[in-house]
Amino acid sequence: MPRLASRVRELIRETRRRSVFKVATVYAVTAWGASVGAAELLPAFGAPDWATRMFVVCAWLGLPIAIVLAWAYEITPQGIVRDDEAEEPSPASDRADTTTVMSGSGSQGNVRVAWHDGLRSHERTLQRSFRIGRDAACEIHLDDPMISRQHVEVSHVDGLWWIGDLGSRNGTLLDGQRVTRVPLPAHCEVRLYDSAPALRLDVRASSKAATVTSSRLNLSGR
Description:
There is one protein chain. By secondary structure, this protein is α+β, with helices and mostly antiparallel strands. Helices cover about 30% and strands about 25% of the residues. It has a six-stranded antiparallel β-sheet, with no helix packed on it. Strands 6-5-7-8-11 form a five-stranded mixed β-sheet, with no helix packed on it. A two-stranded antiparallel ribbon has the order 1-2. It is elongated.
């Protein structure tokens, strides 16, 4: 039963994210107005009664089509694209300094990630750069439709652990502040949208590694 309730909530969140409710409402209002206008105007132009009925039926038959299109496609600055293609991967230039492969020795320390998915608690400790997102290929996989497939990356660069948003749909918040790319403090809380469950990150640096505190962070990411 809890799993069914969780799936229903996920379906509702996904429906809202794809603006299905908004599209259906706008279409219904438009179809109603057009039907009323047709009922008034078509007879005035000598159109037979069946023409008015046909117009109304066709207008409302378009509602499920509009809902399907709203689910499958999304309007973006690049035009109308399939929803699966709407989230563009981060440019290579943005990834260039965040894809360093770490050795398994742990000389750079590690990052402990703990979270709760509504059913149970999870915890992982990683010594290499890793990504968090909805994509099953992410080291931290979160099955939440509000989270982008490749949402955020945590990497070790210049002696520090960094967190960088990968051009996600809903942004990344570090200790309540929206960020683009900043070094991680020793202990922090990350959310992948405003009301998302918290991810608790604990940075365990090596004895020679540099550390930062929240007061040193440029939270704007610029």
